[in-house]
Amino acid sequence: MKLKDKELWLELYEIAEKIQKLEPWKYLWDMDLLVYLCQPLNEIFYCSVMGHGGMHRAIAIYQGEQIHGFFELAKNQIPEYMLINYQECLMCNYIGRQETLPKNREIIKELGLSFRGTWISFESFEKGYEPSPINIKQVKIMIEALKNFYMMFRAIIEQGIKVDFENGEILARHYDKEKKLFLNYPAPLMLPEKHYDIIKADDKFEKDIMKLPQTEMEIEYEFLNYVPIRIRDNKEQDGRYYYPRARFIAERKSGFVISHDLINKNDYENERDYIIESVELLINNFYKMGRPKSIYVRDEETKMYLKDIADKAKIKLIVKPKLKAIDEFYRSLSRMGM
């Protein structure tokens, strides 16, 4: 480890230990958000404290649009095997040695640190990947986020700032250039707009698709999410394992799986190409089986990619975090030990 990197790691551990002494999980629930508007990085950090209920103690840092996944998880409707697709964040963990990733134990040893009972470690949760240790760029991000989380939490317990978390307020923090100081204040929750690369169908599609008969079928479609299966060859140069994507079409009422594939990211050149290919697969299904009455998808993102197609085909598009037929298919695989 380079000397400069080691100094950054030690700085990060120092602030993490300061936070540990304040025990924020005794005061805050995971939905009590502390939000730092970071001008140097042009980013918004949403900080969530875990452990008030006596479970896993941690500080989760969501950057910008990542916070939308946090609220999807908060609904508590996503099946357990799909949770990895909605938790994108950097996390400061206060856990036991056995729960600490082996690579993180190596980092702690190299830094010359030691812990008894509770170990401090850091993990990156990125969609499509196994949880992994953070890299040096993420170390810098965590230093900035946790330093400001520390000051925001102190403002609550030392300055007595009152925040109506139960009614949707957050504690916000930003640097005021005119006053030349940081301000901490209650504010309404601010969420960044999420951007989607909308797939548009042309006029010819609308004309051709309406010639097809509409059936009573209710289709479930999933193509954006990954499944937590470690495949030996799916390994990045930095040592991280990436998951395959699941692409399923199923008939909701009968439970019949029309098509299913596990897609490796090397099978397509970029995200847009994969999405277009997946939309075309659905359209080809229409031509084989007719226009379904409705299409069920797991989340708003999937809905947005299919919205123009569904609108022009006069098909109802419904968001359901639990997809009856597809989830049952997964459960059957689990029962068979796959």
What does this structure look like?
The protein has 338 residues and is α+β, with helices and mostly antiparallel strands. It is built from eight helices and 13 strands. Helix 1 (3-22) packs parallel to helix 4. The chain is globular, with a radius of gyration of 23 Å. The mean pLDDT is 92.
Keywords for this structure?
338 residues, alpha+beta, 5-stranded mixed beta sheet, globular
- Helix and strand sequence: HEEEHEHEEHEEHEEEHEHEH
Q: Could you tell me the number of beta strands?
A: 13
Name the poorly predicted regions. Answer: none
Please work out how many helical segments DSSP would assign.
Answer: 8
Bin the strand percentage. 15-25%
User: How far apart, in Å, are the first and last alpha carbons?
Assistant: 39 Å
Globally, the shape reads globular
